[in-house]
Amino acid sequence: MSQDIIYNAQLLKGVLPMLALALLDEQESYGYELVTRLRAAGLTSIAPGTVYPILSRLEREGQLTSRLQPSHSGPARKYYSPTGLGLDSLQEARNVWASLSHVVDATAMTSRDRAPAPELP
């Protein structure tokens, strides 16, 4: 069996900004480096064309800041890091994810283990 994990595109679309902010909070990165880090985290089939629009949107919204760094192997690289607003958004996203994952775990992941609901009189 392949180690690649297939993710629902809509679910992934909803969590990628949070994942990008979280990884950039740990270490500023340029776009392709972030793609590599996401792949290393388990999103093995994530494409650069998926990540770059998210970085652009987060920067446009003021959640990321960027700086150009000369590169010895080609054009300058654009390094991203979260702003205060981005860190606030990250914390809010983490809180929402924690609540949602609790509901999913309590409902969908254990539904076979739960006793059936009692019948109403």
From TrEMBL:
InterPro entries: Metal_resp_DNA-bind_regulator, Tscrpt_reg_PadR_N, WH-like_DNA-bd_sf, WH_DNA-bd_sf. Residues 21-91 form the Transcription regulator PadR N-terminal domain. Transmembrane segments: none annotated. It comes from the Bacteria. SUPFAM superfamilies: Winged helix' DNA-binding domain. Pfam families: PadR. PANTHER family: PADR-FAMILY TRANSCRIPTIONAL REGULATOR, TRANSCRIPTIONAL REGULATOR RV3488. This is PadR family transcriptional regulator. It comes from Candidatus Nesterenkonia stercoripullorum.
